[in-house]
Amino acid sequence: MRLPAICLSVILALGTGICKSEMIPPLKIPLLMSANFGELRPNHFHSGIDLKTQGRTGLPVYAMDEGYVARVVVSPWGFGRAVYLNHPSGLTTVYGHLERFAPFIDEIVRRQQYEQEDFSIDCEFAEGEIPVNQGDIIGYSGNAGSSGGPHLHLDVRDTNTQDPMDPQEWLSPYITDDVAPEVRRLVFYNHDGVMGNTTRRTERKAIRSAAGAYSIGEPVSVWGDVSFGIEAYDRMTGTTNKYGVHQVDLYIDDSLFSSVGISRYSFDDTRYINSFSEGSKIMRTYVAPGNRLESIYKQVENRGILHVDEERIYRCRYVLTDYDGNRSYIDFSLSGKLQEPVAPQKSGIYFSYAVDNLYKKDDFGIFVPAGALYENLDFTRRKIASPQYCSDTHVIAPSEVSLHRPAEISVRLTVDTLANKSRYYLVRLKNNKRYAVNGEYEEGWYKAKIRNFGSYAVAIDSLPPKVRPLTPERWGSRGSVVLKISDGESGVKSYRGEIDGKFVLFELDGKTGRISYRLESNRVKKGGEHDLRVTVTDMCGNEQTYSDTFVW
């Protein structure tokens, strides 16, 4: 790839092979973010920024730089409709949750969808196939995929590694922010020591004393090893949204103890967030031995654990800084007081993060591979007789553990009377809800891969999915056929729509379960009665077919 000469000094300075070229904003409205880069999310860091679209869809989305369409993805989930552009600078920009593509992209995508007879596609293109100029309209903003409201998701990535980087590095001139982060609470974690009358965890609410200044009141009594956590959010000018904090520094007795900042990471490492954060809210100083996420840690002393072995006051300060340099802080103290540690109660089996772990009894087995755990733990398993299921309910503890790599579990059925074994599936039971985990039946056992400890049992799905037409009397006048599909057991696996015996492309909105087809005169002859047939299949192979006629 030939790069402009103006980039050479920047490449040498960055040492990345990336030219920090001038990019234009992807929207021609004042830029306001609803989410920033690196925010804590369940199982991942936020890979880009979310730009507000004034509460509406259909705004033109512009190519931020020249290049070519490298990839197009369409899915009911995730980014929904997304365009990936590769640029001569060595960067890739990703535009997600689009309502629709620009015509020159849509024509190619739709052709691929009909060739594959599938709404969900993932197509890659070579340089030169679909060129774009800076400022070309590539699509229109929407609310597709796993979006909580109309907005444009924007990633900026290193083309070679696909590592996401903070888009504010290129868009900061267009975004105003003069508001400092705010602190909600501090958390203190015990590591084989004592904290007052607790042996594990305590927390204190942050008290605001002045603009950007917080405290927690009385010192925390500690002896032994302790680590820290903070719940804090950034704020920005012109919005009421909460954002992730760009940089978090902790000082102990005026010395930098921990410094965390996220401006780039690898998708291969993003699930390590389950070790870094607690509940996608608390940012922890503790770096577990199985946590290989190096990119966010600028400095960490003793894996983020402070050893308190002096009877004195330890002065501590968290300093929080956003991308634009706005800063706030919270002061707190630890009171070192000699106390007799309470030996932790251990009643289970030692599982190591560093090696494979195998547990097997007569009716249950689990294999946790090396690297699945972030740290060593005390593993326990108990079972509960559950007449409503085809097996006992097996409770795997500690239940709050998320796994970096999948574990394999095997559950013996207590009732195995089905002739069609594909109707069995595994469920995870949490907060009085059931979540399907699909695996396979094998000689009286059900085997599946799981990403969390918790409660599991084997269930039966013998019910077909549901298909419900929505205002069919208006299909012809509206020029659009709309139905709702759902499955309350193992979940919908696939669907297929036909009109007059020919495949037509129904688009699925994953959030609502609606499938819709806008009638096309080149595929459906206008001016008569038509036969509709929609077939939906669930993960256990149950089918439901809906047939009807309509006039258009």
> Could you estimate the helical fraction of the residues in percent?
under 10%
Q: Indicate the structural class.
A: mainly beta
Distance between the termini: 52 Å
Main β-sheet, in a few words?
13 strands, mixed
Bulk shape = globular
Low-confidence stretches: 1-15
DSSP summary, beta strand count? 46
Q: How many helices in DSSP terms?
A: 5
How large is the share of residues in beta strands? Answer: over 45%
The radius of gyration over CA amounts to 27 Å
Q: Report the average pLDDT across residues.
A: 94
Any chance you could write out the topology, listing elements then pairs?
Elements: H1 8-14, E1 33-35, E2 40-41, E3 44-45, E4 49-52, E5 60-62, E6 67-74, E7 81-86, E8 91-96, E9 98-101, H2 103-116, E10 121-124, E11 131-132, E12 137-141, E13 151-158, E14 164-165, H3 168-171, E15 182-194, E16 201-205, E17 207-210, E18 213-215, E19 220-233, E20 247-252, E21 255-261, H4 273-276, E22 277-278, E23 282-284, E24 297-300, E25 305-308, E26 313-321, E27 327-336, E28 349-351, E29 357-360, E30 364-368, E31 377-384, E32 393-397, E33 402-412, E34 424-430, E35 433-437, E36 440-442, E37 445-452, E38 455-460, E39 466-469, H5 475-478, E40 480-486, E41 492-499, E42 502-504, E43 507-509, E44 514-518, E45 529-538, E46 543-551
Parallel strand pairs: 18-27, 19-27
Antiparallel strand pairs: 1-4, 2-3, 4-13, 5-12, 6-7, 6-10, 6-11, 7-8, 8-13, 9-12, 13-14, 15-16, 15-19, 17-18, 19-23, 19-25, 20-21, 20-26, 21-24, 22-23, 26-27, 28-31, 29-30, 30-33, 31-32, 32-38, 33-37, 34-35, 34-38, 36-37, 39-40, 40-44, 41-42, 41-45, 43-44, 45-46
